[in-house]
Each structure stands twice: as structure tokens, then as C-alpha cells.
């Protein structure tokens, strides 16, 4: 078994128009910048993919990564918890102009909806958002005398995520807090594409420390020295 | 000019109530200051939504590791005994009732414990983050805040007028003027600045202050 692919362009070549795409990371930490930029490059060359629904905790920062994807007008709808950042102008302008749709989800509910999607659980109940605007229209049920909000699973056609090291079977370990949403998104997408700094042979990762088992991963691409969104933004970088 | 505590002093006061061994989440922005004023000899472990337990001070400028950040996206360092985990585990810690204390900021707090701290209503881009999860997860939810808004309007009200973050969730409020518990749907005054009369404090508070027991002087060091 070998899930590695030779290039970033090949890794993102099958993402279609209208796809639901989970993008890993929390801010810049764990964000698969090179995969996102490869997707933008493909769109600029071919006009596809467009009309994407993107699931991420945030809405991008500056003019790289997710913000650049939004700036290219490739994203029709964003599902996130916190569409603010140091430089949220790209998303903010489109949102206030009514040109991008936003589904705002509390962060823990977002994580659990993704986890549920990956675990085959169509709905669950949580106290989060009870009595607030974000529970409007949702089913409420009482358990042991306390009201809970019903939330539905979130699944995606594709997840693009970042890890630190993979073996050829797609077993993954992450770097520090860059783990965040990435392992959950690997579980919840029909096709998970991972960029890693290092690919090793099976056996090269101690089974005791595998965070994402390879069953949740379909494609692995090597990016040996990944860029970091925070560094790019300090340089005032734009993509392209 | 009414005397009042600085943000650092409000944070100091809130820090005095964090028990040794507590697992604590601090909201982004102002509440992060609470970590600076941990009393000597007590060890609290701080949780951040993005998957770290036991993070510490920010690193020196230029030495940031952007895989080590807090929920406010600021660079942090690790203390011995730190742990990483993914977002679903992080919010299992929150919603599963494993955190001892969450300390959050507020636009408004109501006498029944309702909190409004995520949206000022129509206009702009709404953003909620983990606030709605935290208010229903931690064993104790406290708020630190100015007692009144910049325009001088009360932030402690009989009912919130802004969109709610959570219903009946706050149990203690540390303000720039007082420490107030929320018990049985009422504001119960515990401490106030010694130079401030009860009448003066009441006039700056939107709900009725109840005084069923002794009120201690709120005395905080210069910081």
C-alpha cells in the first residue's frame, strides 16, 4: 500500500465544483498552506474548482491560505466559528456585500459535528447555544431535567489537512498544537489529502504514537519546508 | 471621578479565587491577564481550546513557534507536564465538565446569570468561537469586566438586551468596583471598593444589589 502522490497539483486535481471541503488548522497553526495554494493555482489555470463550501474554524487572515482562496471567489459558503483575525478584510468585505454565505457554529459544536460525521453519528445533543440565536430552529430536548440542542453531523467530499510526518499507509503524527481540527477532518471526509514534512516507510512511526490511523487518509504529499501563515503575513505576502 | 480598579487589578482579584490544582480556561483578550497573577504556592493548569493543557508565558519576540499558540492566536510556551490533544477532546474537557473554572469577558451580565459576550447585535461580522461551549462546561463560570460601559451605562442588568452567549451560566462577576455573586436569580454583593457607598454602586448597576451578609472591602494592590 502506498498513498503518496508525487505533487501538490496532482493531490488536489480531483476536487470538483461545488465540493464541500474541510480545511484543517486553527488560524495558521496546522493550516495546509501549500495544498490551498495548489488549489488556487488550479482554479486560476482551469476555472475549477469553484462554488466550494469550506469548513474551517476561521475565515482566513491576510491574503494567503484560506483568505486567498476566498479572495479568488472560489468559496460560496463558509462554515466556521470565528471569522475574525488580525486582517480579516477579504472575508469581511465579501460578507458585508452579501457575496459569501456564513454558517456560524460554536467552536466545540463545530468540532463535535465533524467528529460525529467521521464516526457515523447523524446527530447529537449539546447544551451549547441553548437559549441563543445560534440554536434558532433547532430541535430542543430535555435530558435529566436540562435542555439540550440537537446538532447534525458534518461531512465533506474532501479534507485538506497538514500533519508533521506520515508513513506510506497514511498513519499520521502532528506538530504540537497544529493538531487541532486536523485529525477530526481526516475522519469526516470521503477523501482526505494530507501534506506532511516527512514521509517514512511503514514501521517508521511507533504505533503507540500514531494520532490519525491511515484508514482515515487517502492521499499524502510531501512538503518538506512548509510556509507558516503568520510568517507570510508579517512579510505582507499575497497568493498568487 | 469614581475610583475604580484597572484591568490588571480586576484580573488580580479574580486570580485570588483560583484554587491550587484547578484546571482553568481564560477567555481571549482581557481574561488572559488573570494568568499573570497566580498566588504564590498555588499551581493552576491553563487550558486552551486549540489543544494545549499547561501552557505558559509568551516566548521572547522573534522566537515564536506558530504551532504553539493559544485560542487568541498568540504564541505561548509550554510548562513541564503539558499535553496536546485535538479539538474534539479539547471540547470534551469543556463540555464534559472537566474544567474547574472559566473566566470570560462580558458585554452584559444579568441577575439570573445570563451572559452576553459574543455579539453587539445587527451589523458587522458575527463571531462566537468557544464562548458558548465554555459557559455550559466549566464547573464555575466567572466574568471579569468594567462595571459600566465606556458611555457609563450599566453592564450588570436585570435582563440582557444583547444576544445571549448562555442562559443562567455565570456565578460570579469581578468588576472594576465590586465582586458580585449570582445566587437564586439575584445579584448578591460580596465586596466593594471601600470609598464607594452602596447607593453609589447601586446607581451604576442595572439590577438590584442584595446584601444578605457582610460586604468586604475590595482591596487590591497597585499593579
UniProtKB/TrEMBL annotation, chain A:
Keywords: Transferase. Its EC number is 2.8.3.6. Pfam families: CoA_trans. It comes from Gellertiella hungarica. Belongs to the 3-oxoacid CoA-transferase subunit A family. One of its GO terms (molecular function) is 3-oxoadipate CoA-transferase activity. The keyword Transferase applies. The keyword Transmembrane does not apply. This is 3-oxoadipate CoA-transferase alpha subunit. SMART domains: CoA_trans. It is an enzyme of class 2 (transferase).
Automatic annotation (TrEMBL), chain B:
It comes from Gellertiella hungarica. Gene3D superfamilies: Glutaconate Coenzyme A-transferase. It comes from the Bacteria. Keywords: Transferase. The keyword Ion transport does not apply. It is an enzyme of class 2 (transferase). Its EC number is 2.8.3.6. One of its GO terms (molecular function) is 3-oxoadipate CoA-transferase activity. Transmembrane segments: none annotated. The lineage of its organism: Bacteria, Pseudomonadati, Pseudomonadota, Alphaproteobacteria, Hyphomicrobiales. Belongs to the 3-oxoacid CoA-transferase subunit B family. NCBIfam families: pcaJ_scoB_fam. This is 3-oxoadipate CoA-transferase beta subunit. PANTHER family: KETOACID-COENZYME A TRANSFERASE, SUCCINYL-COA:3-KETOACID COENZYME A TRANSFERASE SUBUNIT B-RELATED.
Amino acid at each position: 500500500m502506498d498513498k503518496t502522490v508525487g505533487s501538490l497539483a496532482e493531490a488536489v486535481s480531483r476536487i470538483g465544483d461545488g465540493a464541500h471541503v474541510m480545511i484543517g488548522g486553527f488560524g495558521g497553526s496546522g493550516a495546509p498552506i501549500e495544498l490551498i495554494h495548489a488549489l488556487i493555482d488550479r482554479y486560476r489555470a482551469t476555472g475549477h474548482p469553484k462554488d466550494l463550501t469550506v469548513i474551517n474554524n476561521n475565515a482566513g487572515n491576510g491574503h494567503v491560505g484560506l483568505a486567498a482562496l476566498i479572495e479568488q471567489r472560489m468559496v460560496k459558503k463558509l462554515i466556521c466559528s470565528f471569522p475574525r483575525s488580525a486582517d480579516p478584510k477579504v472575508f469581511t468585505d465579501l460578507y458585508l456585500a452579501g457575496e459569501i454565505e456564513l454558517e456560524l457554529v460554536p467552536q466545540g459544536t463545530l468540532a463535535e459535528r465533524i467528529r460525529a460525521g467521521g464516526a457515523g453519528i447523524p446527530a447529537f445533543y449539546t447544551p451549547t447555544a441553548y437559549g441563543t440565536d445560534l440554536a434558532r430552529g433547532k430541535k430542543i430536548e430535555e435530558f435529566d431535567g436540562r435542555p439540550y440542542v440537537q446538532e447534525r453531523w458534518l461531512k465533506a467530499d474532501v479534507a485538506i489537512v497538514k500533519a508533521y510526518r506520515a508513513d506510506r499507509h497514511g498513519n499520521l503524527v502532528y506538530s504540537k498544537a497544529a493538531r487541532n481540527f486536523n485529525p477530526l477532518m481526516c475522519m469526516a471526509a470521503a477523501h482526505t489529502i494530507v501534506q506532511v514534512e516527512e514521509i517514512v516507510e511503514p514501521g517508521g512511526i511507533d504505533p503507540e504514537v500514531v494520532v490519525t490511523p491511515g484508514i482515515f487518509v487517502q492521499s499524502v504529499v510531501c512538503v518538506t519546508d512548509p510556509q507558516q501563515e503568520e510568517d507570510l503575513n508579517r512579510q505582507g505576502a499575497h497568493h498568487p | 471621578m469614581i475610583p475604580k480598579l484597572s484591568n490588571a487589578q480586576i484580573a488580580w482579584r479574580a486570580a485570588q479565587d483560583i484554587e491550587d490544582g484547578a484546571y482553568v480556561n481564560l477567555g481571549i483578550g482581557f481574561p488572559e491577564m488573570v494568568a499573570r497573577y497566580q498566588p504564590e504556592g498555588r499551581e493552576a493548569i491553563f487550558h486552551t481550546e486549540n489543544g494545549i493543557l499547561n501552557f505558559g508565558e509568551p516566548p521572547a519576540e522573534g522566537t515564536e513557534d506558530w504551532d504553539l499558540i493559544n485560542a487568541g492566536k498568540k504564541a505561548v510556551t509550554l510548562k513541564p507536564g503539558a499535553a496536546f490533544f485535538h479539538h474534539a477532546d479539547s471540547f470534551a474537557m469543556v463540555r464534559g465538565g472537566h474544567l474547574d473554572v472559566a473566566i470570560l469577558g462580558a458585554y452584559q451580565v444579568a441577575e439570573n446569570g445570563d451572559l452576553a459576550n459574543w455579539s453587539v447585535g445587527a451589523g458587522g461580522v458575527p463571531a462566537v468561537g468557544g464562548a458558548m461551549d465554555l459557559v455550559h462546561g466549566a464547573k464555575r463560570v466567572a466574568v471579569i469586566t468594567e462595571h459600566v460601559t465606556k458611555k457609563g451605562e450599566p453592564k450588570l442588568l436585570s435582563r440582557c438586551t444583547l444576544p445571549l452567549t448562555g442562559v443562567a451560566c455565570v456565578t460570579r462577576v469581578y468588576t472594576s468596583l465590586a465582586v458580585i455573586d449570582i445566587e437564586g436569580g439575584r445579584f448578591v454583593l460580596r465586596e466593594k471598593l471601600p470609598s464607594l457607598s452602596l447607593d453609589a454602586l447601586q446607581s451604576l448597576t442595572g439590577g438590584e444589589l442584595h446584601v444578605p451578609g457582610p460586604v468586604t472591602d475590595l482591596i487590591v494592590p497597585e499593579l
